[in-house]
What we know:
By secondary structure, the protein is α+β, with helices and mostly antiparallel strands. Helices cover 22% and strands 27% of the residues.
Amino acid sequence: MTITSNRMTITAKRKTAFKKDPTRQAADLQRENAGLVRIVEEGEVWPIERMIDTDARTDAAGHMEVELGHGAGRWHIYALHFDLPHHREAKGPKQAPANGRAVRWSDPLAPVSRWFAVQEFTLNDPRRIPTDRTAQDNIVRFSTEGLDPVREWWGAGLVSNSGYRPWDVNREIGSRSPNHPSGLAMDLRPIDGDIWGFQERFDAEWYNTGRWLGGFGLGAHRGFIHLDMREWGTPRRWGY
């Protein structure tokens, strides 16, 4: 999946690296060939032209491929180490729309629920803007009935690694699951970075108590937690 913009930037939240191979450790790549790694210091801001998310099933899960601005090339980044364009807006409460038809889908900041906006589902990619009425309604329902209560329980912002993916985008990144194309799934993480704490508490306080009746993918080790409501009433829990 690709986002295109001339004004996007990413900011390193810690010392990290751009890598040519997302499946290998930066130190191993550097020993092999220094040109395969570029060290990035905390606070560095880089302009990017494109950003490509990676499906959880691949060895590169948790990473995104970016094309840097000014001809600096294509590199892989570990998403948890960067402040990404679709994570920057304040997560304050919003006036939730009544249904999908009431959402301004072309506006990344338009609310789809009290705590979530269009950009969390589209990652600012025009190809991800839902045009199917059912998917639009599903996104509103999933956000309002599923994600908002989780956000309020956690008490802090949740950011999206991957939200709505139409079928062509879903296939492009190697997924055949209908969860994301239905508009009823999100791979997310807490903005405070306590992804293991979020996963453990959600497991104990939501899934194991019967409060969450949908899909729950334990992907903390890959930088995200998967939640979906596609088959609500048939709880499913799995590890990646």
